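Quick check before the chapter quiz. The format below is the same one you will see on the exam, so make sure you can read both the input and the output lines.
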Amino acid sequence: MKRKCLAVGIILLFIGTCIIPATARESEKPLPTLRGDWLYVGGSGPGNYTTIQNAIDNASDGDTVFVYDDSSPYFETIRIYHSIHLLGEDKNFTEIYGNGVNSTIYGTANAITISGFTIQNSGRFYPNAGVYLYGSDGATISQNIIKNNRIHGILLLDSTNVHIAENIIEQNNEFGIGVIGGSTNNITIESNRIQYNYGGVVGFSTDNIFVHGNSIVYNEMVGVFFENSRNIEGYHNDVISKLTNAHDNYSPNKWENETYGGNYWGDYQGVDTNGDGIGDTPYSFDFNSDNYPLMKPVHDLYVDGGGPYFGTIDHVLQFNTEVHGGQYPYEWQWDFGDGNTASEQNPLHVYDTPGIYGAQVTATDIFNRSSTNIVTVKISHPPETTMYVDDDYTPSTPGWNFDHFREIQDGIDLCGNYGSVLVQPGLYCDSGYKRSVLIFASPYDDSQYITLNKPITLKGAENKTSILDGKSQSSVVEITGEKATLSGFIIRGIGIWGVHCSADNCVISYNTILGEARCIIVRGNHIQIFGNELTSTDDSTLEIWGCMDVDIFRNNITNSSTAFDLMLNEQIKIHENNFIGTLMRTAYWVDLLSTFFSLFRKTRFYQNYWYRPRVLPKIIIALGMMYLTYPVPLPVPVVQFDLFPAKHPYDIKGFT
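Here is the expected output.
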């Protein structure tokens, strides 16, 4: 039964949240009550340090390192091994820009304070984050902007009694906040804005997590996610996710407060018959429920501009927005990032220059409350242009976000048809690092991969020095665009498959593909696969399924448990390949015995080198799967021949 005091509690809490931000802004300057010595970075006075890390290395427990914004941005990765206070002059202008390899700030000491910074560009592999605390007790992370990190915004591992408050945590590739590990407990997460990440607040095997008064909005996959975690308490959060608002598999955790109410859930469908602001029915998810769901957002007004948007120059692009909270009617203001504006909710716009734009939409309600959202717009180049990708490029690189990019997918998205994307030497993990935990996604969700979705050439650097690594957590490359070419990469860390080609008229050439899963899967027609080094130690190397006219030639196929799975194909040619240390299996699916033997003519093996010099034809033992009674297959042995096998291995070299 609902209690009338809930409405009073909501009003009191709303008044409190109106007062708190004003005092919080006052405290962004260093507090004179902090004890210990003060060390200064980036100012103009005598004795100032030039780097943050130098000041930290010279600090002792209890000291304060104060960083001026005069010398911002600071291109550093910070390591904190003492109990210090690290304070920035102004979070909007005191920026720490990591090296893209490690965590931007990593701390192991107790009683650390991190406040007043913009923190971005962490490394791309777990467990890196914008702020990563390991084994820390009593830390405070407050009043920061933590954004654009290549994996997590904040990550706590085996840390206790941590207070995370009044931060803006946005546009991080995985979790906004991640709390992980059986020793991680007593974590308070309050009054943060956690938005446009892959997941909002995510916890695994934790205890005593308090989530209060946060805006957890427009995260791509999930708002709040807790797995095998106990004593979770969450209330007065606004949770509006693009896919799933909440997951919590442990009961009973607590997602309401008897005095102040529950949370606002963007997809709640209940009604409020007595007008007290509390829904009449619970909001249920998994093994938990919010028995006092709020009918309106706690924090008034949210606008989502949709996106990301993709278009081409001189073509009309449609923008779409939605709004939560506030009071109708709304006023709209769009800034498209190219000097043009509009005052409609869902405007049309034409860009005349390719590039990556940040389009900004602001919604204002009748009480003059406003909310702003910036969305990504990618406008591709004209045909036959060349894009360049290097993981060392930065915003100061000439052509940044025009024809020079740090991520391969950005280069593909902005490349015009029949153009090229040239990837410089380096280790690239567009496929794996973004999605190390697939919470509710299908394992075949295109967002996990490098998606080659148009007729262009994606080419690695000379001597195969461009490495695509799936981190064994997903697939690596999806080819969905006709007439696409993938060439010149080392592809490794295969989780599902290395390359999946579902389009027609494509070329896969001069790659080295290594893994325990399938190297290449083909579902398209008129495909050429040549010049590749292919090794799959625990699965078939190539799977060709339902295809016509696939030409597989001049490849080295080595140390593979099975060379091929061939199913329901026409005109498959396998010739002039080197098979070294490879077993053979060829699987056919047929439904009638009368058509079984005709399938031999649909796949031709000829002039391949088989392990050793041969004079006589090579006998290929295959396994046919015949369906006399569907769906139970009848295995039937099949014998095929390479009538003219090569006597010596072919000299197959990759491009240079």
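If your answer matched, good. Confidence is low (pLDDT under 50) at residues 1-32, 431-447, 585-598.
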